[in-house]
Design goal:
This protein has five helices and 26 strands. The protein is about 20% helix and about 35% strand. It is α/β, with parallel strands linked by helices. β25 and β26 form a beta hairpin. It is globular, with a radius of gyration of 19 Å. The protein has a ten-stranded mixed sheet, with helices on one face. Strands 6-9-12-15-18-21 form a six-stranded parallel sheet, with no helix packed on it. The chain has one domain: UDP N-Acetylglucosamine Acyltransferase, domain 1 (3 Solenoid), CATH 2.160.10.
Length: about 260
């Protein structure tokens, strides 16, 4: 293990294949939280990129379906205790913990999906994205992937978060523990995330604070041609610590009128 980064840098084919195999079984992660901060292992992403170059296009047949690709589908789902509902797809090199469910959605290579998480219908988990435990990715959610540049942080959804229908989270945004995104929230690296719960707004960029309840918003901006509404995200409250997670989520949606 200690010499793997150097061997990957030297484009050792055996080392590259070993790294992807370790990703597949959860022995490695592209990013991990250390002392409260997310650390990205660029050499692992470099191994994934090299794996694409090593692999050749092949025809794969799954019942009546035919695929033509370089990366095979993940195997051993029953032994791993993972439910994948047809035609959901988990690519080789992604790790899904026991007890997670993938509806007809998609989990790309390098991604990590925690136990108890639901990847709902037509939700997409992009390459190298990190999805925590007991997360709900609602229908049509788009979690962006990133392989290049190798040092770029992937999207990170921490434990217990709820991502509402048709949300889009891209460009390395971190959604912290137990946050709730209402339907249609779009978060990029430059999206203003505005806490409007106090007398003055508090601005966040690239990060949704833990337990926040977030909805789509618009703020006016003046251009030479006139004033136009620009998208933002509004933090309108927090999940209450006095209730358990399930009740807290229901209360947040009821109290703040958040659609999911």
């Amino acid at each position: 293990m200690s010499d793997l980064p150097a061997r990957v840098a030297a484009l050792d084919p055996d080392a590259i294949r070993e790294v992807v195999a370790m990703l597949d079984r959860g022995a490695l992660r592209v990013a991990e939280k250390v002392a409260g901060e997310w650390i990205v292992h660029a050499w692992i992403k470099e191994a994934i990129l090299a794996f694409f170059r090593l692999s050749t296009m092949e025809v794969m047949e799954v019942g009546p379906f035919e695929f033509h690709d370089k990366i095979p589908l993940k195997k051993g789902l029953a032994a791993a205790g993972v439910r994948v509902v047809p035609p959901g797809v988990v690519r080789y090199g992604a790790f899904v913990e026991r007890g997670a469910i993938v509806m007809p959605g998609y989990v790309n290579i390098g991604a990590w999906v925690g136990a108890g998480t639901m990847v709902d219908t037509w939700a997409t988990v992009g390459s190298c994205a990190q999805i925590g435990r007991n997360v709900h990715l609602s229908g049509g959610v788009g979690i962006g992937g990133v392989l290049e540049p190798a040092g770029a942080r992937p999207v990170i959804i921490e434990d217990g978060a709820f991502i509402g229908s048709r949300c889009i989270v891209v460009e390395g945004v971190v959604v912290e523990e137990e946050a709730v995104l209402g339907a249609n929230v779009v978060l990029t690296a430059s999206t203003p995330i505005l806490d409007v719960t106090g007398p003055t707004e508090v601005r966040h960029v690239g990060r949704v604070p833990a337990r926040s309840v977030v909805v789509p918003g618009v703020r006016n901006k003046r251009f030479p041609a006139g004033e136009y509404g620009m998208p933002c995200a509004l933090i309108i409250g927090t999940r209450q610590a006095s209730t358990d997670k399930k009740v807290s989520l229901n209360a947040a949606l009821r109290d703040f009128g958040v659609s999911v």
